[in-house]
Amino acid sequence: MSRPRPLVPRGDPADTVRVVGEFGVIARVLARSGTAAAAEVGPGDDAAVVRTPDRRVVATTDVLVEGRHFRRDWSSAEDVGHKAAAANLADVAAMGARTTALVVGLACPPDTPTSWLEGVATGLADECAPQGAAVVGGDTVAAAPGSTAVVLSVTALGDLGGRAPVLRSGARPGDVVALAGRLGWSAAGLAVLRRGFSSPLAVVSAHRRPTPPYAAGQVAADAGATAMCDVSDGLLADAGHVAEASGVVLDLDRAALVRACLEPVGPLQQVGSALGVDPMAWVLSGGEDHALLATFPRKARLPEGWTPVGLVRPGKRGAGVRVDGVEAADALAAVGAERAGHVHFG
């Protein structure tokens, strides 16, 4: 493993938010924001106007706080933009929808280099472009006096394309639990960075720029998925949300998870061996990969990109998550994990 090199921008001290001013910052950021196909009125007025062919709007918001969700010495500005967009686009995908537009709020210290904000805008635009989406508006404000942290709030709008939204509450006993995307990579990358290293690059890059399977959400909805969620806080934690909302038990198959997430042998095992961690701990409790977890009727044919990893069982003794029939807490203890996933106020 190699030591990381600082990614904090140096920049021209005269080219900061304080010097350029709000409208100067906005102009520079918008120059890199791209174009949303659904935008009838883009940035420049009091509000944007976005077409809604479906006549329904999927809306979601994520807030990224420097020091908690990203660090400027670990991630480039472009990385932060990609990550902020991905968190929202994945939530929209988990409803079976496609993102059409983003609105961004930013609070930053006055000495923040404008080049850094331009980098964030580039990352946002590049992550959104394949979806035909872009930033269509937002706001900027100075951080609280004395604060050195950047706060980035992103709201995404999405279109269902005539589909019914796939909720967390639709799982039924007998359904198949399936996974699209990868698990544990971002958590492994975070573990590497926390120890002062920057390799293997595969897992570090996964933490800096997650790669959610956006298209899998619409495909799952078309295939009859009964419930779905974005795995942002950890597999067991987010599966628990589905179980609770549906009043069922999601019984995950450990062998299937190993096949889906740890075979063939690769970076997760390499990092686990180097750090003395069972990589299954990252698979079960690691967040920010933004994989999608869904349930499908047992006789349904799983669409391409989806892998079966368990079954839905009746919640006679209460809703919850198990691994091979074992309660989640015991499954976590067996792999040395302390929590089922990210705790936002822990």
TrEMBL record:
One of its GO terms (molecular function) is thiamine-phosphate kinase activity. The keyword Ribosomal protein does not apply. Keywords: ATP-binding, Kinase, Magnesium, Metal-binding, Nucleotide-binding, Thiamine biosynthesis, Transferase. Mg(2+) 2 binds at D62, D91. Mg(2+) 5 binds at D233. It catalyses: thiamine phosphate + ATP = thiamine diphosphate + ADP. Substrate binds at H69, E288. The keyword Cytoplasm does not apply. Its EC number is 2.7.4.16. This is Thiamine-monophosphate kinase. It comes from Blastococcus carthaginiensis.
